[in-house]
Amino acid sequence: MDPTNKPKGPSPHYSLYQRQVFHHGGTAGQLPTFSVHPEELEDSAKKKLTDRGYLYASSNAGMGWTDRANREAFYRWKIVPRMLIDTNTRDLTTNIFGHKIPAPIMFAPIGINKLYTPLGELVPAKIAGELGLPYCLSTAGSQPIEAVARANDEGASSHNESNKVWSYHGPNGREAKSPRFYQLYMGHDDEITLSLLHRAWKSGFDVLMLTTDTWQLGWRPTDISIANYTFYYKGTPGNEIGESDPVFMKKYGDELKKEKGKWIDSHVWHGKAHTWDKVKWLIQKWKEISGGRPFVLKGIQSVDDAIKAHEVGCDGIVVTNHAGRQVDGAVGSLDVLPDIAKAVRDKMTIIFDSGIRTGADVFKALALGAHVVEVGRLYVWGMAHEGESGCRHVMKSLLADLDILMTVAGYPVLRDVDPSALKFNPHGIPPARGEHAKL
């Protein structure tokens, strides 16, 4: 961990963040204010937040079996370490839709970030910019699209000279150091949909991601027990993207004053399903608006749907079960990833989401066919502790975890991470919550 004896490689030495933490503790007595162990992090976030805030990010569908299935799937795949490999430098870089990024990790779209810190989505957008990682804004966000774009640019501008390698020229000639995704919940008013697309494109979001699995909220008993639907409560966030949209406000602004849930009920979780024909229409419109930039479909769990997504013109898919929040008793996302990757990986970009908690999880998802992974709950829990610094600490810790894992496991380059790096064990399940402390 000697920082003066680190040969320069393609990727930042994320591993040095561990040394930085140790050094601050040993020389100045400056200890982290919270644990980044995923289970301990969630538990401490629960103590920091109100029930509404904690459950918005943590509630699962039904009995929570799908959330459990996500974690069990990771447990069954074991990493095969290799020894005496030169891992003095690592290459964690990858390309996604024409963007070269320093690590295969992106910020997943999560709504209502103001539940976790007053600045809401401005915080993860800024941190993503700092780290050069892709950021994805949710239509259920609690900051206007334009404000989030500015925060992302602010973070990107803080990159030092060595990070300029991640630059690319985005929409309208904009030079950026991290790509931006806009995640769309699509209602049934096309004028509003098109308004959101135009706003996103003008603000430098150059990949559109349509979520297909949450036009209707799943049955989430822990939310039901406290009527946890923030959008209906006075003085709470959740309508900011609608309130800042000129088309929505012109058509429905008066109704929004009378009924706080108008935005979320009519354009986000409206309860009326779309079909593949509507996806074709949306792809066409986005391509026209953006000059042909990528379109991604989120919510894929079957090979047939992955193939269909390619056939209708999608450039990528997100393999996810919405982190277990929609269909109780569904398959774990990692369980379906290998077959989906076998069918379409050479034809489109595969983003993996659902259950990522550690560097080992990232490694396993990449080995089984993902090009990049999304992280969600981790950064939200970090924000719950210390806002910007908490979010930064969690994400830098995850990057260090992945970097160190590849170092000690003998995998210096991402392209070496393939199914041969893993061994499947169908037996056993991960310890129950809290059992790690007894081992």
UniProtKB/TrEMBL annotation:
Domain spans labelled FMN hydroxy acid dehydrogenase: 30-427
Binding site residues for glyoxylate: Y56, Y185, R220, H322, R325
InterPro entries tied to this protein: Aldolase_TIM, Alpha-hydoxy_acid_DH_FMN, FMN-dep_DH, FMN_HAD
Residue sites binding FMN per the record: P109, I110, G111, S138, Q183, T211, K298, D353, S354, G355, I356, R357, G376, R377
MF terms (GO), sorted A to Z: FMN binding; oxidoreductase activity
UniProt similarity note: Belongs to the FMN-dependent alpha-hydroxy acid dehydrogenase family.
Keyword line: Flavoprotein, FMN, Oxidoreductase
Keyword Cytoplasm: no
Pfam families: FMN_dh
SUPFAM superfamilies: FMN-linked oxidoreductases (SSF51395)
Top-level taxon of the source organism: Eukaryota
Active site residues of this protein: H322 (proton acceptor)
Cofactor: FMN
Protein name: FMN-dependent alpha-hydroxy acid dehydrogenase
